[in-house]
Amino acid sequence: MSSTVVDVSELQSFDSESVKALGNFLEKRLDGTVTVAKKEVTLNFEDGKEASRSCLRVLLRKFLHKEDLKEDFRVISGGENSFVLKERKEYAE
Which of 63, 89, 80, 66 is closest to 8 using CA atoms? Predict the structure, then answer.
């Protein structure tokens, strides 16, 4: 059994309802179990049914686009088997 962790601590501080929506979104799209905690979303897959990293990244980006958060957040790698939803920096000119 493999697992992937998505760090949503910055999204949690922005909007706590979005974390629950992310859990529901991933549960509908993936063949695995989704566990929503306070600061992270854990995806557990059975052996042979894992989703690829690129597939997970695309699904996270689709969620941000669907919830109109694409301009506020981005998906970055957090190391092996983890992603981070990071708030975009705004530059003032």
Answer: 63
Q: Do residues 73 and 8 make contact, with C-beta atoms less than 8 angstroms apart?
A: no
Output the pTM of the full model: 0.89
CB 80 within 8 A of CB 4: no
Helix (H, G, I), strand (E, B) or coil at 93: coil
The whole-angstrom separation of Cα 36 and Cα 20 is 7
Tokens of 76: 């970055």
Q: How far is CA 57 from CA 10, 53, 91, 93, in A?
A: 17, 6, 25, 31
For 92, half-sphere exposure in the C-beta direction (CA atoms, 13 angstrom radius) is: 0
pLDDT of residue 77: 92
